[in-house]
Amino acid sequence: MWMGLSYVCWGISVVLAAWMLYDWFNVDTTYSEETLTSSREGELEAVSEKHRI
Amino acid sequence: MTAAVETAQTTTIHGDRVSLLRVLGPAHVWALGVGIVLVGEFTGWNFSADKGGALAALIVCWVVGLLYTSVAMIDSEVTSTVAAAGGQYAQAKHIVGPLMAFNVALFLVFAYTMLEVSDAILLGDTIVAKAGIEGLTHNSFIAATIVVLAWLNYRGVLMTLNVNFVITAIAYVSIVILFFSVSPWTQGAVLKLNELVTPGNALPYGWIGVIAAFQFGIWYYLGIEGTTQAAEEVRSPARSLPYGTMAGMITLLIAAAMTWYVCASLMPWEYLGITYYPLWDAGKLTGSPLLENLLFIATLLAALASANGCINDAARAWFSLGRDRYLPSWFSAVHPKYRTPYRSILFLLPIALAFAFIADLNQAITFSILSGVLQYTFMSINIMMFRKKWPLGSIRRGYTHPFHPLPAIVLFCLCMVTFFAIFLGFGSQLIAMTVFYFLISLWFHFYRYKFVRRGDQFSMPWPKPQGY
Is residue B281 classed as helix, strand or coil in its secondary structure? Predict the structure, then answer.
């Protein structure tokens, strides 16, 4: 059982790592660098007020 | 349905900016802080018994508890005022200056990444010890721990800390169940404290043993200051951060006292000081298979919760460095859908894996403790400067800690004692780390700082400090 669990752990690790790399590539090619790095310290309060629910 | 879609669209990207999400409450802050720390009750604190005996482990439990109570009070005041990702880094930037801030951010990243590595190694070793099969190594369990938790952090902070809340609560409750299962009110039935801790063996190395025990006494509470990294993602920083941090500290003081009492009453100090699994061993010694298995699972959950919180905190500190251009701004990217610092999470992932595969558990723990104590030393100086530059009444504070400057003085003195204790056990590592921080400071001052947009980094709308 433990050896089987060990192989499952390797499998999950590879799948999730691959998913993150794929998503990273996807995001970086879809959005501009300016948009992705646009977060600014201290502007959050003003930004969160713009929520419309 | 239409309203739901509209909500998702309007909250994904606010105009031109993609920011972290304010979705957390006090319970998440508690889960982050206690989640990082609680693993220290399952392993780590007990090595202080090896340094100075069982009574020394209790003395440092209380004295280091005082150190961390000072940390929690000081941190709550400053962070409820400087509510930004990066925690102590953002505090240092506004109160001391950029070079201090750069160093503090590195202390944070080192402390949390090395603690994450230690947690993953502990989890892998615990499973291998339970399995008892020849040929089974811990590598696959280490890889799965680090990658799965990085994935969870990548997907969003709310789910990450919801998971942390549940697994931390289960691990905590297991300590309470163990405590009440051994009839703590009756000595002699299960517990034998009066036989195991006697005047003859309580302090086998005298008071120098108590000083040496400080090095591992830190493990009772190491990481509670990590709550501040959630500052930019809590809905109400002024309320949630002090409340979550203080509640976490109270929780940990109770857990630490229960843990010492049960373990010191079941194991002789010579064994308690060298085992990697004091609570799991205590579960075994009760003779109850249920308690044994509960404590085994709780050890795994505590390690998971700690590694999870560490990934969260290290990534926020790294992200903040990128956002202020102390490091390339590439690291300051926020995921437009999950609203997490995804590049920082991914960048730190292979570093943690590499250390976990090649480093020894003791080395990883020591580097984590060293970086943590350097950070606490900074905090004692930081609060003195904060109160001097912006006295009470000059700016709005979410929380004001009592008895100033006593907590700062106590914190500074205890940090000095801890440095001495670390020097006794790991002097070469202490010197190597000090040299490393000195060299990296030179690099920052003479090379990197020219890339920083100096006016942009100070974001708090405070009046000029007194005396300037």
Answer: helix
CB nearest A44 (choices: B6, B22, B154) = B22
Q: Does B31 touch chain A (CB under 8 A)?
A: no
Contact between B418 and B48 under an 8 Å Cβ cutoff? The reply is: no
Cα dihedral across residues B306, B307, B308, B313: positive or negative: positive
The neighbouring-strand residues paired with B395 are B392
Tell me the per-residue pLDDT of B75-130, one tens digit each, with 9 for 90 and over: 889 888 887 878 899 989 999 999 999 999 999 999 999 999 999 999 999 999 99
Q: What is the SS3 assignment for B25? A: coil
Number of neighbouring beta carbons within 10 Å of residue B407: 23
Instruction: With beta carbons under 8 A apart, name residues in chain A contacting B11.
Output: 51
| Residue type at position B457 | Q
B285: CB partners within 8 A, 6+ apart:
B266, B267
Q: What is the DSSP string of B211-233?
A: HHHHHHHGGGTTTGGGGGGGTTT
Q: What is the Cα–Cα distance from B80 to B116, expressed in whole angstroms? A: 26
Q: What is the CA radius of gyration of chain B?
A: 22
DSSP string of B55-74, one letter each residue: HHHHHHHHHHHHHHHHHHHH
For residue A5, the chain B residues in CB contact (below 8 A) are 127
DSSP state, B65? H
B138, B140, B212, B144: which is closest to B360 by C-alpha?
B138
Instruction: Supply φ then ψ for residue A45, to 5 degrees.
Output: -60, -50
Q: Which of left, alpha, beta for B287 (phi over 0: left; psi -120 to 50: alpha)?
A: left
> Two tokens at A48?
């969160």
The residues near B323 (Cβ < 8 Å, ≥ 6 apart) are A37, A39, A40, A41, B85, B329, B331, B332
Residues A7-44 pLDDT 10s: 999 999 999 999 999 999 999 999 999 999 998 886 54
Segment 13-52 of chain A within 8 Å of chain B by CB: 13, 16-17, 19-21, 23-24, 27, 31, 33-44, 47-48, 50-52
Largest pairwise CA distance in chain A = 54
The residue count for chain B: 468
Q: What are B349's two structure tokens?
A: 């992932």
For chain A, which residues make up each domain, given as ranges? Answer: 2-48
This complex has an ipTM of 0.86
Integer Cα distance of B80 and B133 in angstroms? 50
Going from the N-terminus, what domains does chain B have, and what CATH number goes with each?
23-451 (1.20.1740.10)
